[in-house]
# Entry
Amino acid sequence: MRYISTRDPSHTATLAQAVLRGIAPDGGLYVPETFPTVPPEALNGADTLTEVAARLLAPFFAGDALAGALAPICAEAFTFPVPLRELRDRTAVLELFHGPTAAFKDVGARFLAGMLSRIVGADEDARPLTILVATSGDTGGAVAAAFHGRPGVEVAVLYPAGMVSPRQEKQLTAWGGNVRAFAVRGAFDDCQRLVKAAMADPGLRAARRLSSANSINVGRLLPQMAYYAWAAREYVRRHGREPGFIVPSGNVGNATAALWAMRVGMPVRQVVMATNANPALTAFTGGAAWSAHPTVSTLATAMDVGSPSNMERILHLFGGEDRARPALRAERVDDDEIRRVIRDGPRTWGQVWDPHTATAVAVRERAGGGDWIIVSTAHPAKFEGVVEPLVGHEIPVPSELRRLLDQPSHAQPLEPTLDALREALAAPPR
# Structure
């Protein structure tokens, strides 16, 4: 299997090269050169998420130096439960928040850490690898947890100052050691722009070994395909019907993984992207040309993205805007509806929802019939300031999150310029 740039198919790389580089030299994103067909029966006998991942991803690792390590990487990454729980009205919820940082990003971050650790360990270049990660809230904490203390790796987390929840910020800043956090004076899109600019900057790439742990890195998306494959097959096993997935969507990496799982042949009926008030996706599916929009601040902070970078992969998957638009479905949910869904959740669904999952629940409530899996991306305790006043009681904090909340914070302010980032990376940690 080779990987190509979304902007120039003549630029190819092995999986290990694509993961290490993070972004293609032309600024494009790496995607598989071809998508293999994986018939559901090929996964017969694979009952756990770990087993499904190892079989599903084998064609994507084929011929690569990492191929022999796929099974142990899966075993290391999927060490926490990912339950598919039945609700009502032909609806289930896929809970992706039982990992170390209580968010779905733990799956991809831990898998990517296993890949990069093996690549660095086998590399003759003795310089440390610098991982750059832009985060709107959850990615940075998951990446920090996955890479903290790993030899030969440094992590720089860029997050928008004042635009994440207090508990999310603690998860970004409580590490120290080989993890540095930078509070960028701007929005998430500024953080993402800085990471892309740094990855494409010849001077920085000459001075440092750089990679990215955002969903711009294909190593983040491949393992996320696995939980869609597992959940879809499990739902079919229980009910005999193919489910659709409703995916809370900001930078649309999670939805991209769902579409990739659908493309290779998993029993996925439809993928619906639930967005907050940021209009880029719904404007496009409503008929507008694809374009970036100014970022809108909402209760679902991790989805406050005006220019979702993974749309480049989705457009490539379908062969351009005109073919992608009719194949996609996105629905917008504003803050008032998020509040209503959270407030009514215990009575209507028997659940306390976080603001991001609430967008998917709102879309499910509009959807009428059919079989649906709501993708629950974060634990509500991470957003206690929003959730607790609406449900009227305190939300128990998961034990691993509680341990982080007791640690001191370390963050540096950063202007949203490449020069400022270059200088900050060159300076010793404070």
